[in-house]
Each structure stands twice: as C-alpha cells, then as structure tokens.
DNA sequence: CTACTTGCAAATGCTTTGCAGGAGA
DNA sequence: TCTCCTGCAAAGCATTTGCAAGTAG
C-alpha cells in the first residue's frame, strides 16, 4: 500500500468538502481536479473539453458549479475573454496572474509576502474610508507573454 | 461664448479620437460618454439601457466597441457578473476598484502614488523572470459594500 | 455623393436546465 | 432504496451581425 502523496491528500480534501454539501467525488469531477492540478494555471471550458473529450460540456459546467460550491475551485475572469477555472487559493496558496492580452494565456505568479502585506494594508485603509469590508484582492498583470512577443 | 469646462474638453478629446479612426461623434455615442462621466463608476449594459431607454441595445453595444477602438472607453469585468464599461484611464487617471461580492457594485479607488510605484516594481521583477512584457495592472478588492453589510 | 450610423430582426455562442436513466452508499 | 450524478436535447441570454434606410460632411 503506497504512502499518500500530495495529490492523494488533495483528493481527500476535495472529497471531504464535497461530502460536506452532500455531493460525491465521482470520476468526472476527479478528472477535472486532476486536470486543474496538472495544468498549474487556470483552464477554460474549451481546455477542459479538449483534454477530456468524453466529458460532456454540460457535465463539466455542472461539476464546476459544484466544485465551486464545495470551495475547491475558483472561477476567474481573465481579460474579457473566456471564463477560466483554477483550484481555490486555500489549496494552492495566494497568488496572482499574468494575462497575455494577445493570446489570453494565464500564468500564475507569487509576490513576496512582505509586498502582499503592504497591499492589504493600503487596501484596508482605503476600504475603511468607504465603509467597505475587504475580503480578498486580486492583482492581475496585463501584458504580452514570451510566446507572443 | 462660454469658456470650455472639463466636460467640453473631454468631448473634444473623444471626438478627435473617434475621427482618427474615421468615426463620428454622434448623439448616441455622446449620450453614452455623458453617462459614463456622470456615473463616476463602471456601468453595465443594463445600466445604460435603463438610463438611455431610447438607445437600442444593439447600438449601445456597437458604440461601446467603437469607443473602445478609439481608446476612450475600457471594458472591465467585475467579479464574474456583467461586463461593465468606464472611461479609459488616460482620461480619468489610473485607479482601481472595490467589487461588492453581494450586489456587484463597483466603486473607484485611487491608491497612493508611492504604492503604485512599488506595485510596478514588484511586477516588473517577476515579469522579467517569465519573459513577460507588462503593459498595465489591475488591482481589485473583493468584499462587501456599505449598503450590503 | 460616399462613408459612416442606426434599428430591427435574426443569428451566435456560451452556459444553464428539464428529464429520464444510471450509479453510489 | 433514496439521493445524487449524467447525458442529451432544448432552452436561455447576453452579445453580435445582416440589411436597408438615415445622416454627416
């Protein structure tokens, strides 16, 4: 019996969170999670359809809704193109994105912890002035990726 | 003959930029610009339809495409709701947004100049490592607005 | 006159849903 | 068995587009 690797632990977490909302961790859902893990960057529905040809789009959409409800997947909006999905930050850690304005490619980046603290500090000050309660932030960089230059 | 106010200068700029791409500054387009100016925050197509009932949606969409092409309007994507539009930053100045996760309301905020420089610096360092050419950034704060608490 | 603008209606295209059969516990 | 999951086809909706008439220069 093999020891549990990172991926196995992740699957355990996903299964547990799905069960919390009376949902099951079925093959289709696991295939999506595996895809998100291996991709290492946000993927679109088109990406999923391409990599999982046997999974009907309607099922993919439904799975993604359920996985979001379970708190393991997050829907993001790149520039103004296609909706993309990634593992929730509580599984991958807080990070940001580089968005290619030409091809739409999305790359994950992690900023220095000290910088993130400065961001939160600056945000909370301004939010207070608006009586706005900040929950999280997202910092996206728009530009041209290596392949499009 | 009255002196030109801010709004008049803005309209002159819009007209000039439209002419550059062989487009005319017609009544419908001006109505949209006026709306964006007075709103002081990003507006959705639904907002436009509500405030400009006589303007057909198809025309609104087309105007917004043209105004973007002219570089006076920018399309933004709030959380994962409706597409919204605002005047381009070269007309309003660089700023960011507070996004209410409950009602979708978008509020403009301006961060300290020094902070923006730090952001750009942190970004350019990471972008270099990825051979990514940064053009701009967007920093959105997700949370709950005053009215929804 | 020539080119851009508009409205309406029809077409798109992504996403959601109704249903009926299948599967997990 | 009872509840959740799947697929397919149909429905929804925001957005785009074809066309023909209107208008700016």
Please explain how this structure is put together:
Two copies of one chain form a homodimer. The first copy, chain A, is of the alpha+beta class and 149 residues long. Chain A has two domains: 1-93, Orthogonal Bundle (Arc Repressor Mutant, subunit A), CATH 1.10.10; 96-149, Dna Ligase, domain 1, CATH 3.30.1490.190. Chain A has helices at residues 6-20, 27-39, 45-51, 57-69, 89-92, 113-129; strands spanning 43-44, 73-77, 83-87, 96-100, 106-109, 133-144. Chains A and B meet through β2, α6 and β6 of A and β2, α6 and β6 of B. The first copy, chain A, binds a DNA duplex (25 and 25 nucleotides) through α4.
Q: From the helix content, strand content and strand pairing of chain A, which structural class follows? A: alpha+beta
Largest interface: A-B, 38 and 38 residues
Low-confidence stretches of chain A: none
Percent of residues in helices of chain A: 40-55%
Could you give the order of strands across the largest sheet of chain A? Answer: 1-3-2
Strand content of chain A: 15-25%
State the major sheet of chain A: 3 strands, antiparallel
**Cα separation of the termini of chain A:** 49 Å
What is the count of structural domains of chain A?
2
